[in-house]
Design goal:
Layout lengths: L14 H16 L3 H13 L2 H5 L1 H6 L13 H9 L3 E5 L3 H14 L11 E8 L5 E8 L6 H7 L3 H5 L17 H8 L1 H10 L2 E4 L8 H12 L10 E5 L8 H13 L5 E7 H11 L8 H15 L3 E5 L3 E6 L2 E6 L12 H14 L4 H18 L5 H10 L1
Length: 393
């Protein structure tokens, strides 16, 4: 073996030495005041090899920052600030990202350590002068952490393929009730809005604890007083009722059935929701094939005595009315850009098509293409884009 082929010596980790140095450093910091610690840590940061190596570049960055002409002139400084035209600049260039880090270290008293995971660095600049006004850093948590992921139940597909990790704080939804709606909207205005609407969609029942009582108040106090019109439609989406008990689901389905006396009622269900509703109503559930989907939609509609039930798995969709049942395949894609909101787009497409007077089968086709375009592009489609996808399907 030649000299230059030899491997460099690997650093040796000495636990006792490292432990002693850590304790000594912590004791050293503990003896300082907060101000001394802050100054010391900043001094250590500025002694980093790259900060010393690139000090000429760093000095050039000083003039890129916006500054008032005379900070002691209060009125002039306020006027200059009011005339600023801020905009954000997302940094994709690694060199610009490095400059961002240098500026951040030089302008802030606290040290800078990039968060684990992915980071997006952003400059806020003045459009007129091009000078730097501020900095923003958007960071995500580490993408993979076995203990966390196993505890929550996140899979790789959940994080990277499904396109959604929903961990919203829903506490504010507990404040929504019928009286709150009336106090904010006004009973007259709310009633007038329902009276004039040809289509009303009521969604997210699962996440709003008092939604059943809200629906009950509306059907008892407001619906009987609305002027009759032939085109009034109510669309209901339970939104993942697995979070609610069977008794809760049964109760809201009974309330939804009562709306049929005042409007044409449609209940929209994804596949899992249709299984939960069948189980709650004591009906036989089935698979995702055409016959089973049509059968579930038919039996749910018959049990609830409403105008229409729609069942839409990812790959297809079915619906049932008093005139029969229909099914259509969907423009399925194995690599969606987004899936959160796909059901909402399906429901919107179906409701809009029915409102326009299209047949149930045509409405299903338009609905699947509305959601199909959305999951492919992460954008809500225009009418022409829905038609184009329908032609391709």
């Amino acid at each position: 073996m030649n000299f230059w082929d030899t491997e460099p010596a690997k650093p040796v980790f000495d636990y006792d030495i490292q432990r002693r140095e850590l304790i000594e450093n912590m004791d050293y910091l503990a003896a300082m005041t907060v101000e001394e610690q802050t100054l010391y840590k900043k001094w250590v940061e500025l002694q980093e090899p790259n900060m010393i190596r690139d000090k000429s570049l760093i000095s050039e960055l000083y003039d890129t920052q916006w500054m008032p002409k005379d900070i002691n002139n209060l009125e002039q400084t306020i006027k200059e600030i009011e005339e600023l035209e801020p905009y954000v600049e997302i940094l994709d260039d690694p060199k610009e990202s490095t400059k961002w880090t240098y500026v951040r270290k030089m302008i802030h008293t606290m040290g800078f350590t990039a968060n684990p995971g992915r980071n997006v660095k952003i400059n806020v600049k003045d459009r007129k002068s091009g000078k730097l006004l501020g900095q923003i850093s958007l960071a995500s948590d580490v993408t993979s952490m076995a203990v966390r992921d196993n505890y929550i139940g996140w899979s790789k597909d959940n994080k990277f393929k499904d396109g959604k990790l929903m961990l919203g704080n829903t506490r504010s939804l507990e404040e929504i009730d019928f009286q709150r709606i009336i106090s904010v909207a006004g009973e007259g205005a709310f009633t007038d809005m329902l009276a004039k609407a040809q289509s009303v969609s009521i969604v997210n029942w699962t996440m709003i604890p008092k939604m059943t009582s809200i629906l009950l108040e509306i059907v008892e106090r407001i619906m009987p007083n609305l002027p009759p019109i032939d085109t009034r439609n109510f669309f209901f989406d339970l939104t993942d009722p697995a979070k609610r008990s069977s008794d809760d689901i049964r109760e809201v389905l009974q309330v939804i059935s009562r709306y049929q006396a005042h409007a044409e009622v449609t209940l929209g269900l994804n596949y899992n929701e249709s299984l939960q509703v069948c189980d709650t109503l004591g009906l036989q559930s089935g698979g995702k094939e055409e016959e089973s989907l049509c059968s579930m939609a038919t039996e749910i509609r018959r049990k609830l005595e409403i105008a229409c039930v729609v069942v839409h798995p990812i790959e297809s969709a079915a619906c049932a009315t008093k005139d029969g049942a229909w099914w259509t395949p969907g423009p399925f894609t194995e690599n969606p850009k987004i899936t959160t909101g796909a059901g909402d787009h399906f429901n919107a497409g179906f409701s809009a098509a029915r409102l326009c007077g299209f047949s149930p089968l045509t409405s299903l086709a338009l609905a699947t293409c509305t959601s199909g375009h959305y999951v492919r592009t992460a954008q809500s489609p225009s009418t022409s884009q829905v038609i184009n996808l329908l032609r391709q399907a």
